Amino acid sequence: MKDSEIQKALKQKLKPKRYKHTIGVVDSAIRLARHYGSDEKRAKTAALLHDCAKNMDDKRLLDMARVHKLPLDDVLIAEPQLLHGPVGAVIAKTEFGIDDPMILDAITYHTTGRTKMSTLDKIIYLADYIEPNRDFPGVDALRKKSEKNLEDACIMGLTHTISFVLSTDGLVHPLTVEARNDLLLKKRRKR
Predict the structure, then answer these.
(1) Measuring CA to CA, how many Å separate 172 from each of 20, 31, 65, 78, 159?
(2) Which of 43, 52, 60, 115 lies in disulfide reach of 29, CB 3.0 to 4.6 Å?
(3) Per-residue confidence band for 3, with pLDDT thresholds at 50, 70 and 90
(4) DSSP secondary-structure letter at 132?
(5) pLDDT digits over 120-179, tens only?
(6) Within 10 A of 190 (CB to CB), how many other CB atoms are there?
(7) Is there a contact between 50 and 86 (Cβ–Cβ < 8 Å)?
(8) Domain segments of the chain as ranges
(9) Torsion region of 183: left, alpha or beta (phi above 0 gives left; psi -120 to 50 gives alpha)
């Protein structure tokens, strides 16, 4: 399916605010891909579809995860909205015909991160975080950091996510901690 067709389908499927966010993520992803020499087409497609399951309620996300045999852990069961990435990848494949594993992985891990994140994973993770409609303390610093160093910006974003979730007494998914540690260890090895 062409990106223009995906965009048209998403405009009907998503709430207006979510669609506006999605277009912001697309613009940010293309800019980051261009800046870091990554595939802009892949970045655009992954950005378009990253939140295609975001409007689903908890029960539907859990049901789809079970039907498609997605790995579930206690945190995902307690916080089903974290499944919108993996379920979104299923929808990208089954409804939109996306079979590129790099795009599907970027959609899957755009919220939690993971160890050994690809450049595309990092771009979609950050684009979701820094798109122009986002407004939270520290977003401008993160936008600036994303222009200088992709890995450092991801570490900053992951750190912010962990801090925020801890401040709300929420559950931090292990993949997020692992992603941050992985990037920090790589950085330390380069010193």
Answers:
(1) 27, 29, 19, 11, 11
(2) 43
(3) confident
(4) T
(5) 999 999 999 999 999 988 899 999 999 999 999 999 999 999 999 999 999 999 999 999
(6) 7
(7) no
(8) 3-190
(9) alpha
